[in-house]
Amino acid sequence: MRPFLSLSLAIPALLCAPQAFAQNASDDGEHGQIVVIGEGLEQAPSAAAYAVSEIERERIVSSPSGRIEDVLAGVAGFQQFRRSDSRSSNPSAQGVTLRALGGNATSRALVLLDGVPMADPFFGYIPLSAIAPERLANIRVIRGGGSGPFGAGALAGTIELESADAATLGPLSASLLGNDRGESEASATISRQMGAGFGVLSARWDRGQGFFTTPRDERVPATARAAFDAWSVGLRAVAPLSDLVELQVRGLAFRDERTLRFEGADSTSEGQDASLRIVSRGDWQVDALAYVQARNFSNVVISSTRFVPVLDQRNTPSTGLGGKIELRPPVGGGHTLRLGADYRHAEGELQEEAYSAFTTRLTERRRAGGTNANFGIFVEDDWRSGALTLTGGVRADRTRIADGFYRALNPAGAVVSEIVAADRSDWTLSWRAGGAYEPSASMRLRAAAYTGLRLPTLNELYRPFVVFPVVTEANSDLRNERLEGFELGADFEPSENLRLSVTAFDNRVKNAIANVTIAPNLRQRQNLPAIKAQGLEASLAARFGQFRLDGSVAYTDAEIDGARASAELDGNRPPQTPRWAGSATLGWAPAKGWDLAFTLRHTGAQYEDDLETDRLAPATTIDLFARIPLRKRLSLVFRGENLTGETVITRNAGGSLDLGTPRTLWAGLRYGI
């Protein structure tokens, strides 16, 4: 925790710095105007060779649920570990991935907010409730293994979230909505221009009694609604250091409390993040970033037969810190050369107590934790010559897994079980290469191949858990996951009102980490020989008069290559992996400020487990978003989730089910959003 404490003490001084820098910039402005962008360096030409999806602010702030995962669900191939959203799932299950490469709760996609990795240092999940859509300006999703900054986390691809600047947000923006269950969603943002720079302060608070995730015929007196109470506060300041260099400072604090299935089954996740970024747009372009994160998680497990606490995971403190530096020297000749280094460090410790369901007495005290670190160096070159773009990159990663342990003590303090894992480290080489050719102004053909890397998380290595009646054991011997893949695609844009993109891909994750069934009601995290996924992705964006249509569809034929590990698994579909998934939004804007949109979303059948015994039925939902301007920047907003009341099964453990969001109607006011 010391790195976070040191940086947090420096934050007040840093937040005072932009005004001073802005004053200097104002002086420079007498000789030339300074433009502060508040973003990283311009997207590299290499993106032309890969499957890239962009989500603009208009779509980001018009989600029927108001949740970031709902916004991302419109991207072909995006997938959460479960179908639940961030109000009704356990936070530790909020892993995200692309191209059906999931199967456990850890993120296989790299999620960046203003360049900072957002994954929890211990668990690897994404704190989705802390990422408020109204704070964002743009989202860019790049599929395929990454070899640039923080590429060791981009096994399935990268999701880049960019915060909105003061000009986009306006001096004040706010919203207040309530739904038919008496739940509320409130947010506010204040921004200020400070000379040539700006500052933004934002807050959001979501709370409600929730809905019953348990089917009616399975409820008991102890059954509880999925209550939630979450808040987050963000602070961001950007100021010029010179006419070509700017400083970006960002802080985020959040806390999320939830209850799942039974009274007393409460979980809490919280965090405090801070980052500094310096971006230079001179001849030698530079993007330098440093960040620190302090996170914690707690969770109480209630017996599903006696309805008393059986596990109190009371404390899971973790710290993440890291940084990167990326250089783009002026090499000329149509080349964009990127070279640099990055570092990520994660440490954490589980602290929990287990209790007897019959006597409620303490049976064990458990501790588990360790340290993971990754240092990477990378180089990538893009060459543009007329209609042709070629790109290639390579990175070398030194990974280190150290200080790992698991220890269980009885009430008297005697050791019941103990594992002290050996420290280990390794160097791994990853690469990617691709090309794009534009035979006309409206057509782009592209091809790419790549490899990728992901370290097992501290959670996967050392923390066992129980979702009654299934026990899942940790595995301190897990190896790094490795991706090999290629793709072919075409982008067609005959006009600014029509865009079509199609991509065929073939990906293979070696040493894929999954929860493998080894006995009845007993699983263990293991490295499978591989998960193979081949498929097609397509997206469409069309504008015709007052109407718009945005859609995406993904077909994925994924299977487990488990012959060398378990013939029983060989050829099975990975858990939580549908073959078909898609969404389509039809919108109508009859006048300025007006917006009416219906979203149709379908998720195909999938399995809860690796043996394909617990099936999750397909689900199709219809959602609504409507905005009606009242005066100036004030609007009336209506939202509808699951308008047809579709039964969405999110978990199936031997017939014990959890359900997703029922029909929910929202109404409220927005100002400036």
Which SSEs are present, and which pair or pack?
Elements (H helix, E strand, L loop, with lengths): L1 H27 L23 E5 H4 L7 H5 L5 E3 L15 E3 L10 E5 L2 E2 L18 E8 L13 E7 L2 H4 L2 E8 L4 E11 L2 E12 L19 E13 L4 E15 L6 E16 L3 E18 L6 E7 L2 E11 L6 E21 L6 E24 L2 E22 L5 E6 L3 E17 L2 E12 L3 H5 L2 E3 L2 E4 L7 E15 L2 E22 L2 E23 L2 E15 L18 E9 L6 E9 L2 E2 L7 E2 L2 E13 L2 E8 L7 E5 L2 E4 L4 E8 L2
Parallel strand pairs: 4-7, 24-27
Antiparallel strand pairs: 1-6, 2-3, 4-5, 6-7, 8-9, 8-37, 9-10, 10-11, 11-12, 12-13, 13-14, 14-15, 14-16, 15-17, 16-17, 17-18, 18-19, 19-20, 19-21, 21-22, 22-25, 23-24, 25-26, 26-27, 27-28, 28-29, 29-30, 30-33, 31-32, 33-34, 34-37, 35-36
Describe the overall structure.
This protein has 673 residues and is mainly β. It has one domain (2-165, 181-671): TonB-dependent receptor, beta-barrel domain (Maltoporin, Chain A, Beta Barrel), CATH 2.40.170. The protein has a 26-stranded mixed beta sheet that branches. Strands 1-6-7-4-5 form a 5-stranded mixed beta sheet. Strand 33 (619-631) and strand 34 (634-641) form a beta hairpin. The longest helix is centred in the N-terminal third of the chain and has 27 residues, at 2-28. It is globular and about 70 Å long.
